[in-house]
Amino acid sequence: MRFPTIKVGSEEIDEEKALQIVDDAYQHGVNYFDTAHGYHAGLSEPFMGKALKRYPRESFYLATKMPPWDLRTPEDVRNIFESQLQRCQVDYFDFYLFHAQNKEMFKRCVELDVYGYLQKMWEQGKIRYLGFSFHDTPSVLRQILDTYEWDFVQIQLNYLDWELQDAKGQYELLAQRGIPAIIMEPVRGGALADLGEKANAVLKQAAPGRSIASWAIRYAAQLPNVLTVLSGMSNLEQLSDNIGTLSPLEPFSGEEKKALETALDLYRKKDMVPCTGCRYCMDCSFGVDIPKLFGIYNRYVFSRDAGSFREEIAGCIPGELPGSCQKCGACMEHCPQHIDIPGTLDKMRELIGKLA
């Protein structure tokens, strides 16, 4: 979902750069590739099919997802699944997921018997492992686990969300049931790649030469019930850093654990919006570019550079700005981070007025 793009603000994949990333990953032992029906405005699956077609099919694992928000009838389930096989140029998926499950999305999947259809695809060999990605509370997770049998579950887990969104409770529930966890957002959409000057200094002193992002990757990867860790890498530098971090994986020492606790305490004191840039909140009916605005806001919180903040706001289309928000709340229904988006946009509108 984070391939390099042709230009800023576009979802069109820069295929030359993206192919370099896929090839370099494959050549260094990365064998799990995650895509989804809606990533890059529908362009991710066809690109992944093109990129991976050049390698022996049994040499990699391909994962994609059924989008519940696009489902209205049982026929939609069949049509989307068949189109995904064609788009990815494969005869089967290694890992197939119900995408972004929460209480409401799971209810829709049950009503349309999505599991029944995908179970048939499993029986036909078109799916090898069936699971779901999850964005809700441990109680909802327990309900989903009790309803059907699952091979794996993909959860958002990182050292910030371990307590903030009770990733600990979700992880432990899966571990108790012997269901492997696949980790998404280990670096929280890049937010944990830069914790701010003071927190960064603590980690750099504890582990000279390691990147700040590497701490987040290691935190997730060292947990015993983790099958693999997903990282959306937009350039070769990020890929190289992640490969180095896990070659081999070195669990935290006691001193490193203390350093991370100190850094996290410093980070929590910053007034950050916990947006990962997933864009599930988009498109806004009124034109507000929510992830873009939250990115601008978070950069200001880090730097307190009012000039850069004003410059970035001036570069926005007027309709993208917080003033266009009508507080309809539709965006909040899809936000995996449960952010009070209208309320946060209000704060940003006040900040723009203050710094204008």
Write up what this structure looks like.
The chain is an alpha/beta fold and about 350 residues long. It has 2 domains: about 15-270, NADP-dependent oxidoreductase domain (TIM Barrel); about 290-355, no CATH class. The chain contains 15 helices and 7 strands. The chain has helices at about 15-25, 45-50, 75-90, 105-110, 115-125, 140-145, 160-165, 165-175, 195-205, 210-220, 235-245, 255-270, 290-305, 305-315, 340-355; strands at about 30-35, 60-65, 95-100, 125-135, 150-155, 180-185, 225-230. Strands 1-2-3-4-5-6-7 form a 7-stranded parallel β-sheet, covered by helices on one side. Helix 2 links the parallel strand 1 and strand 2 (about 60-65). The protein is globular and about 60 Å long. This is Aldo/keto reductase. Pfam families: Aldo_ket_red, Fer4_9. Keywords: Iron, Iron-sulfur, Metal-binding. One of its GO terms (molecular function) is iron-sulfur cluster binding.
Q: How many β strands by DSSP? A: 7
Percent in helix: 40-55%
One letter per element, helices H and strands E, the order comes to HEHEHEHHEHEHHEHHEHHHHH
Regions with pLDDT < 50 over 5+ consecutive residues?
Answer: none
The CATH topology label of the largest domain is TIM Barrel
Rg calculated over all Cα atoms? 20 Å
How does CATH name the architecture of the largest domain?
Alpha-Beta Barrel
Name of the top-level CATH class of the largest domain:
Alpha Beta
Q: Please report the number of helical segments.
A: 15
Largest sheet: 7 strands, parallel
> Helix/strand/pairing class, anyone?
alpha/beta
Please tell me what the overall shape is. Answer: globular
Alpha-carbon distance between the two ends? 34 Å
Strand content: 5-15%
How is the quaternary structure best described?
Answer: single chain
What's the arrangement of strands in the largest beta sheet?
Answer: 1-2-3-4-5-6-7
In total, how many domains does the architecture comprise? 2
